[in-house]
């Protein structure tokens, strides 16, 4: 194993000018809590690989014992970048609806995109009948088709990417398990989501057929793969996190026994890992992580998400700043009635981007503290400490993400997936606001990944940041669905 000290340790106290011994001691304490030892990284990497193997082969009755759910996407095979056609995509993300028309031009991955965004009104987030919400979504699709001048002579294939929890039983079949993001329709649970959409579209006279649904990480993978056919891993890292990758159908023990005639055994399929569920037994948590977990609405689960994603990173920083204020490491009074730092989740993760990128007089950090968090006047050393806390929390998050990716890569190499010894290797696609907007995140993840895997493997990997991933990916899922159905018909 190569030397990891360069990225697992962040020496900070020497950079704090004019700091007191008490301040240096406090920063040293946080450094110790947020640094990750070689042993802990090995535990995480091995754990990811073991959970992948368990999730693929464990009997269905024992599935809940696995951290990684390893859900088959039913998307088999690879896009080439030469496919052509016009496809629709629908994404529901929180209260946002995105409708997109993607024209695939082929020619090595060329495409054209037309997209509109709609908002779900507050009065449609809850009710007695889910069809009310579906009717509104159908209206949005009808409006979109009118705007872009869709042909009335053809039926458009549509792929959908949903923010709801769906138990997928086929490429175009799945049942709603839970409604999230504040939605409440009691009759939705157990409903076939595709059937609901078909009925809603038919009622509006829309010539649209939902041919596939996919998780956002699957869409991220395929959005990149159409233009870069060597893509084998797709990751979403934003408010939450997830990872999808290609595996051999022959490795999918439980799935293979249940779907012997659905998918060719020699093909490869995208698997949704649901790695947000990586538990604390594989992760180097500390007292601040425990505090985040205790105050969360999903206590005891999603430890990986709570240590790495945009939903929680700012809160980790806030808790450390409260601790520092209480032991008089910071000069400002957070108990002042104007100050927001005593209020949970009032230090937004986006503030970390500003503080870490700040230089010289740390004016951006001053604005974050004094104007956004209303701390009152801050000193230069206050700002240096806050910047350093952001670096430590953000650095650990990137290292954990990089180590988890390394665990997936290590599994794929061991099982001969996507890495031809004679070939050029494969690409990893990553999307999400944290990954895109946090300037130091990408280089830290790449450095971690490069350091944790053998040089000969690292030399064959590339990491790309994907834009418009979910919605474009959903359209490409629709294209892949038609391609898969044609191949099955030929068997």
TrEMBL record:
Asked if Transmembrane helix is a keyword of the record, the answer is: no
Keywords from the UniProt entry: ATP-binding, Glycolysis, Kinase, Nucleotide-binding, Transferase
> What is the protein name stated in its UniProt record?
Phosphotransferase
Domain Hexokinase N-terminal spans what residues? 27-226
- Give EC number(s), comma-separated: 2.7.1.-
Gene3D superfamilies per record: 3.30.420.40, 3.40.367.20
Signal peptide as annotated in the record: none
Pfam assignment, any one: Hexokinase_2
Which organism was this protein described from? Answer: Helicostylum pulchrum
Q: Hexokinase C-terminal domain spans which residues?
A: 232-480
Question: Hey, which family's this protein in?
Answer: Belongs to the hexokinase family.
């Amino acid at each position: 194993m190569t030397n990891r000290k360069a990225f697992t340790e962040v020496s900070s106290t020497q950079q704090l000018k004019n700091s007191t011994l008490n301040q240096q001691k406090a920063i040293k304490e946080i450094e110790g809590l947020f640094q990750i030892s070689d042993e802990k990284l090995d535990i995480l990497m091995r754990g990811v690989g073991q959970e992948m193997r368990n999730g693929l082969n464990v009997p269905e009755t024992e599935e809940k014992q696995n951290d990684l759910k390893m859900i088959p996407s039913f998307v088999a095979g690879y896009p080439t970048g030469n496919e052509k056609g016009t496809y629709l995509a629908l994404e529901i993300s929180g209260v946002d609806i995105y409708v997109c028309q993607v024209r695939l031009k082929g020619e090595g991955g060329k495409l054209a995109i037309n997209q509109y965004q709609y908002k779900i009104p507050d009065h449609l987030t809850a009710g007695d009948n889910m069809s009310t919400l579906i009717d509104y979504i159908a209206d949005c699709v009808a409006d979109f088709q009118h705007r872009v001048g869709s042909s009335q002579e053809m039926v458009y294939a549509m792929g959908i990417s949903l923010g709801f929890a769906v138990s997928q039983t086929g490429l175009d079949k799945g049942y709603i398990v839970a409604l999230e993001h504040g939605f409440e329709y009691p009759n939705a649970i157990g409903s076939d989501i595709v059937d609901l959409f078909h009925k809603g579209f038919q009622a509006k006279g829309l010539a649209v057929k939902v041919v596939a649904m996919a998780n956002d990480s699957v869409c991220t993978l395929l959005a990149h793969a159409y233009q870069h056919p060597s893509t084998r891993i797709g990751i979403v890292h934003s408010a939450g996190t997830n990872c999808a990758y290609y595996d051999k159908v022959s490795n999918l023990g439980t799935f293979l026994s249940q779907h012997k005639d659905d998918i060719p055994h020699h093909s490869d399929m995208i698997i949704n890992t649901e790695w947000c569920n990586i538990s604390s037994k594989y992760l180097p948590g500390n007292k601040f992580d425990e505090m985040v977990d205790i105050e969360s609405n999903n206590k005891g689960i999603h430890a990986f998400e709570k240590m790495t994603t945009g939903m929680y990173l700012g809160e980790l920083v806030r808790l450390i700043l409260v601790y520092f204020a209480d032991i008089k490491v910071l000069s400002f009074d957070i108990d002042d009635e104007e100050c927001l730092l005593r209020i949970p989740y009032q230090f937004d993760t986006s503030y970390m981007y500003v503080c870490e990128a700040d230089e010289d007089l740390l004016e951006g950090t001053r604005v974050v503290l004094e104007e956004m968090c209303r701390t009152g006047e801050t000193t230069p050393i206050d700002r240096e400490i806050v910047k350093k806390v952001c670096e430590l929390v953000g650095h650990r998050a990137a290292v954990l993400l990089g180590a988890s990716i390394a665990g997936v890569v290590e599994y794929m190499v061991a099982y001969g997936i996507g890495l031809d010894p004679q070939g050029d290797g494969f690409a990893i696609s990553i999307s999400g606001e944290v990954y895109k907007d946090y300037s130091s995140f990408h280089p830290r993840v790449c450095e971690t990944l490069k350091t944790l895997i053998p040089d000969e493997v690292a030399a064959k990997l590339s990491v790309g940041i994907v834009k418009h991933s979910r919605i474009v990916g959903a359209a490409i899922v629709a294209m892949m669905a038609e391609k898969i159905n044609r191949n099955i018909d030929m068997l």
